[in-house]
């Protein structure tokens, strides 16, 4: 794989901001002559800044019928994610807004300040039936702007008030900002938290997921959750062949040493525009092994003898096939056996659900 000649975009995962052509949108290109002219007058291009647009949807719960995932409803408090993980499978969703799944996804964010209010109204409906709500399935509920908006915390307050089960997946130790609520939810068997640890190398993490919490902070957060009695799961996701798979065993070992008793791994997924973005990232940071990485990726996603960048099919999209996939699977199982750790299915309790008042004081302090 050839190395890209343009300098890397520092502090961001994606290295470009092209608008995809899947929906017939107009493409955007940087005019080299114009850029050279501007740089000669004003210096290098202005540093990318993060912007947040507030939106007011009519509903906040998203329902799915996917037969190979454990939840049927989710909440995404934000669109886009400042963590900037180059491998994020949610990047293509920005294309629906005429925005780039690349740099736009991690710099042009959307927040939903009314999420808790909308959730309360939904839970109060007579026809509503409770099942666990998943947060963090698309974009991270604890990305940096959560510290300012506190939307995730407000949603957790509604769930606690209504005794509604909720799960969280994150790459941030900011989840500890809500440890008080999570502890109360856990006391009623209403929550479980998964923290994703991709690598133990902070420099590599800074390239892969430049604005996510450092790996050491994520592991420490897992330990804090365990100590507080909150069911915690270590998710090694994604496993990137020849880039992060070398850390699999040690991540399992360190998680187990912290008292974590549940772990799992998910192979790299490259849907739609994520594949070219990831290839571009490889050409910038790992040009010498990019060909090997993609060769393995295509082998574990192969179908009918043909290599593919991605497998979108139900059931097989999370379960790679082939020699390399079998090797990763065997290594992970052996690491778990040695560490005394497994994959626990956290059973949350829906029987305590009580419809919230649409208006009025929450019952957060009731037993």
What are its keywords?
single chain, about 375 residues, alpha/beta, seven-stranded mixed beta sheet, three-stranded mixed beta sheet, 12 helices, 10 strands, globular
Molecular structure report:
The longest helix has 17 residues, at 323-339. Residues 28-42 have low confidence and may be disordered. Helix 9 links the parallel strand 9 (232-239) and strand 10 (263-267). This protein has 367 residues and is of the alpha/beta class. It has helices spanning 32-42, 103-107, 115-123, 146-149, 151-162, 179-187, 202-208, 215-227, 248-257, 274-285, 290-300, 323-339; strands spanning 51-54, 61-63, 73-75, 78-79, 108-111, 133-135, 166-170, 191-196, 232-239, 263-267. The strands form 2 sheets. A 7-stranded mixed beta sheet has the order 2-3-6-7-8-9-10. It has a 3-stranded mixed beta sheet with strand order 1-5-4. The chain contains 12 helices and 10 strands. The radius of gyration is 21 Å and the shape is globular. Helix 3 (115-123) packs parallel to helix 5, helix 5 packs parallel to helix 6 (179-187) and helix 9 runs parallel beside helix 12.
Summarize the structure.
The protein is α/β, with parallel strands linked by helices and 367 residues long. It contains twelve helices and ten strands.
Structural class: alpha/beta
Radius of gyration using CA atoms only: 21 Å
Strand order of the largest sheet: 2-3-6-7-8-9-10
The helix content is 25-40%
Tell me the span between the first and last alpha carbons: 60 Å
Tally of contiguous helical segments? 12
Order of helices and strands: HEEEEHEHEHHEHEHHEHEHHH
The total of beta strands comes to: 10
Detail the poorly predicted runs.
28-42
Major pleated sheet: 7 strands, mixed
Mean pLDDT: 90
Shape category: globular
